[in-house]
Amino acid sequence: MDLPVMPPVKPMLAKSAARIPPGMSYEAKWDGFRAIVFRDGDEIEIGSRSEKPLTRYFPEVVEALLENLPERCVLDGEIVIARGGRLDFDALLERIHPADSRVRMLAGTTPAGFVAFDLLALGDAPLLDAPLRERRSALADALADAADPVFVAPATEDTGLAQEWFRRYEGAGLDGVVAKPLDLPYRPGERVMVKVKHERTADCVVAGLRHHKSGPVVGSLLLGLYDDSGTLQHVGVCASFPMRRRAELMEELEPLTMASVDGHPWAAWADEEAHVSSRMPGAPSRWSGKKDLSWVPLRPERVVEVAYDHMQGDRFRHTAQFRRWRPDRDPRSCTYAQLEEPVNYDLSEILVHPSKGPGGSR
C-alpha cells in the first residue's frame, strides 16, 4: 500500500456541548464503529478508533468498498448495521469474533454498511490540510455513484435543519449531531469538532461498585432497574468522578457493603449461563479481555439520579453521569417504565444516495 496518507491514522474527535453551535457544517452522529478506510487498488485496510484493524471482521464491507470507492483514497466514516429501520450496535459487537466462520456467517445474516463523512486523501493528493468545505465537496464527488451499502453521510449548513435532525433521527438509533467548522483542516486525534447528544435522566438502584485502578476508592457505581417480573437488571455504570469525590463516595457507601454476594440480586454474576436470562455485571465479553470484572456488592437500598443519552436495548449505551442522590425514592420504584422512548424513525429515510434523494451535501 502506497498512499499519500498511510495507516495508522487516529480519527479527528469531538468535544461535548449542550447546544448546537451556529455557523458550522452539521451531520448526524452515527452509532457504529468509527473507521478510517485506506484503499490502494485491490488493497483495503480498515482501522478503528484505537488504530486496531477491523478489516477481517467485515468482509462484506471490504467487498462493498472495493466496488464503490475510488482506486486510491483514504476515508473517515462509520461502520453500521441497520435492522428494522434503525441502527443496531449489539449486532456490531457480535462481529468482533475470533472465528472466521462465525464472522462470515454474520456477514451474511446481519451485513454491515459504511457511512463516509470525510476524505483524507484522493489519488496522490493528501487532503489533511484542506478545509472541511473542500474535503466535503471532494467526498461527495468521489462517491457520487456509490451504491448500497456505501453512503455519504447527509450534511447541512442550516442550523434549523440540524436541530430537526437532532429531534427526529434518534428514533433511527442515531445519538445526536456533530458540528464541524467549515474551515477546519483534518487534525487526527484532536477534539476539534463539537458533538451534541441527547440527555435524559433516570433514577437507578445502586447495587454495587468497582474500585478505581488507583486503589480502594470508587471507580464506578453499578446501576440497576427492576423489570416487569421484579428482577433487578444491571443497566450500566456511573463514573467520571473527581478523585476527592471517589473517596467520599467510598465512605458514604461503606455501610451498604456486603461481605459476599450471597443474597444479592446479582449473586450468580460469575456463572456464565446466568447471563443468558438476566443482566448482571461481569458479563463475558471479547472487549473486556483480561480486564478485572470483579465488583463490590452493595445492599440495593440507595437510589441515584443519573443522566444518560440513550438506551442500547435494555441498558445504557454509554457511561451515565451522576446527578444527585434520591433519598425520597423507594428502590423498588426504579423500573424501566420511567425511561423515555424516542419516536421511531426509519433509517432508510436518512441514508439516501445523492442520485435518489437528499443524501450527501446539503
TrEMBL record:
This is DNA ligase (ATP). One of its GO terms (molecular function) is ATP binding. Keywords: Ligase. GO terms for biological process: DNA recombination; DNA repair. The keyword tRNA-binding does not apply. Signal peptide: none annotated. Residues 114-227 form the ATP-dependent DNA ligase family profile domain. It comes from the Bacteria. The keyword Ligase applies. Coiled coil: none annotated. It catalyses: ATP + (deoxyribonucleotide)n-3'-hydroxyl + 5'-phospho-(deoxyribonucleotide)m = (deoxyribonucleotide)n+m + AMP + diphosphate. Belongs to the ATP-dependent DNA ligase family. It is an enzyme of class 6 (ligase). SUPFAM superfamilies: DNA ligase/mRNA capping enzyme, catalytic domain, Nucleic acid-binding proteins. Its EC number is 6.5.1.1. PANTHER family: DNA LIGASE 1, DNA LIGASE 1/3 FAMILY MEMBER. InterPro entries: Adenylation_LigC-like (IPR044119), ATP-dep_DNA_ligase (IPR050191), DNA_ligase_ATP-dep_C (IPR012309), DNA_ligase_ATP-dep_cent (IPR012310), DNA_ligase_ATP-dep_CS (IPR016059), NA-bd_OB-fold (IPR012340), OBF_LigC-like (IPR044117). It holds the Pfam family DNA_ligase_A_M.
